[in-house]
Design goal:
With 286 residues, the chain is an alpha/beta fold. It has a domain of 172 residues: 3-Layer(aba) Sandwich (Rossmann fold), CATH 3.40.50.720. It is built from 13 helices and nine strands. α9 packs across α13.
Length: 286
């Protein structure tokens, strides 16, 4: 049985849907904080159990009988994030899971300028220490983040953001499809995968050009200094830790941490990954 955590989230739900195209529903289980939100999956024959990264016993129960568990990384940062991942990994070991997979990030490194990438690196250390077979999915930077940064310029026509660098923005749907492929072909990767990226690395100069072509009107890319960006985020009610993480995306991008483009994602899904312009058009058409 394959168990997926976070199966009602943006990435986890997509992965479960792609899995159900490949294997019978009774071979898929999900661990979710609120089983009511996964009732439709239960109705389709998926095993639904309550599991929380803050409740080790619930995870041991949710992981019972699993050949593989996919841990979808938590939307937390720092020690809170790593502690939750440690709880889930320990529960997987206690439950006798055969293999652990984890949604990491292409820039995972202990010296990354981006806090979540440092968290991913620490989590990979925990996986390595289990002695179990494990796979860390080095996902390309989610294109959804770029779309969020661009949202205010959708109406103003001006993207006022810090200096950045090329980023291999990658779509959730493509990553979900690749993850399902890996889960159903267990021997493909041991340890970290190559970077699972979109087809091109783009900075915000290139992104605003795509936005202009998509909308048929001018878009301007304005560079603001780091402190100004951070203060503006704080003035809009963004908490200090979140503002620091937002800023660090640009700092890390300037350092080239997310610029690599790799063919592995295309090989896994059997086609070219979706380009950023298409993702932009889909998002802005909604």
């Amino acid at each position: 049985m394959i168990i997926v955590t976070g199966a009602t989230g943006k990435l986890g739900r997509r992965i479960v849907e792609r899995l159900l195209e490949r294997v019978p529903a009774d071979q898929v289980g999900v661990s979710v904080r609120d089983p009511r939100k996964a009732q439709d999956l239960a109705d389709r024959g998926v095993r639904v159990r309550q599991g929380s990264f803050d409740d080790p016993d619930s995870l041991v129960h949710a992981f019972e009988g699993a050949d593989q568990v996919l841990l979808v990384s938590l939307d937390r940062t720092g020690e809170e994030c790593v502690a939750g991942h440690r709880t889930a990994i320990d529960a997987a070991v206690k439950a006798g899971v055969g293999r652990i997979l984890y949604t990491s990030q292409m820039g995972a490194a202990h010296d990354s300028r981006f806090q979540p990438c440092r968290d991913h690196a620490r989590t990979e250390d925990l996986l390595r220490a289990t002695g179990l077979p494990w796979t860390s999915l080095r996902n390309g930077f989610y294109a959804a983040s770029a779309l969020q940064f661009l949202e205010s310029s959708r109406h103003s026509g001006e993207a006022a953001l810090p200096a950045d660098g090329p980023v291999a923005w990658t779509g959730h749907d493509d990553l979900a499809e690749a993850t399902a492929a890996i889960l159903t072909d267990e021997g493909r990767f041991e340890g970290p995968t190559p970077a699972l990226t979109g087809p091109a690395a783009l900075d915000f100069d290139a992104i605003t050009e795509l936005a202009a072509r998509t909308e048929g009107r001018p878009f301007t890319r304005t560079v603001v200094d780091d402190n100004t960006f951070r203060e503006q985020a704080l003035s809009h009610g963004v908490p200090v830790p979140a503002a620091d993480v937002m800023l660090s995306v640009f700092v890390a991008a300037r350092g080239g941490e997310f610029s690599a483009v790799d063919p592995t994602l295309a090989e896994l899904i059997g086609r070219a990954p979706t380009g950023f312009r298409t993702l932009l058009e889909r998002a802005w058409a909604a």
